[in-house]
Amino acid sequence: MMYKLIYKGTFSIPEADDACVITLTDMAETRALSIVLAKEMASEIKRHEHKAEETRNHLVDVFTQVMKDEEITHYRIEFEGIQDRGFKAKLVNTITGKGYELLPETAVLLSLTSGYEMCAPLEVLQKFSTPFNKEVMSVALPIMSLPDSLLQKALDKAVEEENYEGASFIRDEMKRREEKNKK
């Protein structure tokens, strides 16, 4: 069973000069999936979010127009889990089931331009989402989604707050990334 996701916005991360975060929630707005992305892509998403009418010739704009011209409406964007790494996105033909992998941030941009529904299975929501509170202007980021530049800051903060269990998880993630980079 797939659960529909709602785009809530693209936000700056105060501690990171080069990164932003996209927040997607479930329909009940109780769980949030967070996608960390580069500021340049965040600016592009914000431009589409506000439906800027300037001349566009980005690939996603051309692709969206072709799909609208061809009246191709049987697609949706699905987020799938990746073991120990987060999640990925696919543009899926709802008739044939054939999927095309996309970066999660590109999938959000495609959804904003095309109107394609975004969804995820319960497993992704359970494993990769965090609690969402629409009254609070912040969102928790899963450790595995933090860019390397923020991982050390998160470790320092966990140690400073004497959150040794959290620090241990962060250290484990740093080691996992080091081992992956050695391969």
Distinctive features:
eight-stranded mixed sheet; 183 residues
Topology:
Elements: E1 2-12, E2 19-26, E3 31-38, H1 39-49, H2 59-69, E4 75-82, E5 86-93, E6 99-102, H3 104-114, E7 118-121, H4 122-128, E8 130-131, H5 148-160, H6 164-182
Parallel strand pairs: 4-7
Antiparallel strand pairs: 1-2, 1-7, 2-3, 3-8, 4-5, 5-6
Helix pairs in contact: 1-3, 2-3, 5-6
Determine the structural class based on helices, strands and strand pairing.
alpha+beta
Question: What does the main sheet amount to?
Answer: 8 strands, mixed
Rounded average pLDDT: 83
How far apart, in Å, are the first and last alpha carbons? 36 Å
Low-confidence stretches: none
Number of contiguous helices = 6
* Percent range for β-strand residues: 25-35%
* Strand order of the biggest β-sheet: 6-5-4-7-1-2-3-8
Helix % is 25-40%
Q: Give the radius of gyration.
A: 17 Å
Please tally the β strands and state the result: 8
Query: H/E order of the elements?
Result: EEEHHEEEHEHEHH
Shape: globular
Describe the protein's architecture and organization.
With 183 residues, this protein is α+β, with helices and mostly antiparallel strands. The protein has 6 helices and 8 strands; from the N terminus they run E-E-E-H-H-E-E-E-H-E-H-E-H-H. The chain has helices at residues 39-49, 59-69, 104-114, 122-128, 148-160, 164-182, and strands at 2-12, 19-26, 31-38, 75-82, 86-93, 99-102, 118-121, 130-131. It has an 8-stranded mixed sheet with strand order 6-5-4-7-1-2-3-8. Helix 1 (39-49) packs parallel to helix 3, helix 2 (59-69) packs across helix 3 and helix 5 (148-160) packs antiparallel against helix 6. It starts with a strand and ends with a helix.
